[in-house]
């Protein structure tokens, strides 16, 4: 069976300020990826940049979306539907990022969005993560609940279209989790998936996000036992982002 590639996703959030800058970042990153063999790179820009950047996609770098509306077409002022994305060759969509959950997105809505993404043939990058850690380990149950709800009624055969991005909220924009704690969590998430679906398929990827940079990316992936990373701030710095990708590709 073909081995799944590792995955490095850049989440640009509400950046950069101009299309010119956006094009520069993508062009520079692509230039740095020529020697990459085992890693799928996905960059998720704001919606307004998706169309003008879509022509720059290649086998090495794909575009993803940061969100979309779970409803089909219709009267939803200011929204973009999942069904509008594939025409721009969008293959990946981030769902349930903690910054969206803070805006009111709950587990039920995340589940609706996951089902829309996979039904459009795209891959859902489902973000899960506790807000804080307690000594009693209650956060494990919190993660289990987020994963079980997000994947409710998702057919087992579509699990290859799902990536779990473990992003402890307290680490985002702050300080990364240690690789050994990540290892513990990745084992736990695999167990949760096995309990839910009867198997943990190696086709399903678990990635980590929260303060990933060039100084910690390879240890997080290697010692944390995950298949890749979701990068915020460092994905806007092409040199750093390429360095992260190269480090991960060489593992
Ligand atoms: P960060 O963001 O890498 O800047 O911590 C990660 C994220 O929010 O996905």
Outline of the structure:
The protein has 251 residues and is of the alpha/beta class. It contains eight helices and eight strands; from the N terminus they run βαβαββααβαβαβαβα. It has one domain: Alpha-Beta Barrel (TIM Barrel), CATH 3.20.20.
Describe the structure.
The protein has helices spanning 19-32, 47-54, 98-101, 107-119, 138-150, 179-197, 217-224, 238-249, and strands at 6-11, 39-44, 61-65, 92-95, 123-128, 162-166, 205-209, 228-231. The protein has 251 residues and is of the alpha/beta class. The chain has one domain (6-69, 79-249): Aldolase class I (TIM Barrel). β7, α7 (217-224) and β8 form a beta-alpha-beta unit. 2-phosphoglycolic acid is lined by residues 11, 167, 172-173, 209-212, 230-233.
Give the CATH level 1 class: Alpha Beta
Chain-averaged pLDDT: 95
Ions, cofactors and other ligands present here are:
2-phosphoglycolic acid
Derived from helix and strand composition plus strand pairing, the structural class reads alpha/beta
Number of DSSP helical runs: 8
The CATH topology is given as TIM Barrel
Helix fraction bin: 25-40%
Sheet-strand content, in percent, reads 15-25%
Nearest-angstrom radius of gyration?
17 Å
Task: Identify the strand order in the major beta sheet.
Answer: 1-2-3-4-5-6-7-8
What does the oligomeric state look like here? Answer: single chain
């Amino acid at each position: 069976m073909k081995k799944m590639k590792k995955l490095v996703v850049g989440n640009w959030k509400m950046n950069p300020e101009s299309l010119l800058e956006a094009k520069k970042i993508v062009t520079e990153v692509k230039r740095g990826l020529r020697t990459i063999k085992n890693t799928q790179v996905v960059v998720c820009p704001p919606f307004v940049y998706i169309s003008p950047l879509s022509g720059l996609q290649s086998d090495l770098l794909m575009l993803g979306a940061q969100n979309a509306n779970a409803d089909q077409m219709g009267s939803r002022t200011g929204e973009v539907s999942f069904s509008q994305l594939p025409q721009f060759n969008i293959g990946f969509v981030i769902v349930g990022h903690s910054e969206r959950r803070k805006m009111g997105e709950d587990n039920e809505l995340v589940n609706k969005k996951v089902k829309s993404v996979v039904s459009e043939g795209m891959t859902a990058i489902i973000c899960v993560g506790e807000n804080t850690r307690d000594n009693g380990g209650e956060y494990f149950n919190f993660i289990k609940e987020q994963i079980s709800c997000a994947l409710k009624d998702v057919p087992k055969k579509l699990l290859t279209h799902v990536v779990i991005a473990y992003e402890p909220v307290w680490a985002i924009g702050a300080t990364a989790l240690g690789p050994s704690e990540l290892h513990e969590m990745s084992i736990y998430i695999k167990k949760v998936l096995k309990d839910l679906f009867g198997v943990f398929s190696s086709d399903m990827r678990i990635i980590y996000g929260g303060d990933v940079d060039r100084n910690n990316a390879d240890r997080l992936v290697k010692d944390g036992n995950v298949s890749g990373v979701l990068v915020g701030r460092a994905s806007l710095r092409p040199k750093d982002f390429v360095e992260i990708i190269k480090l991960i590709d060489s593992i």
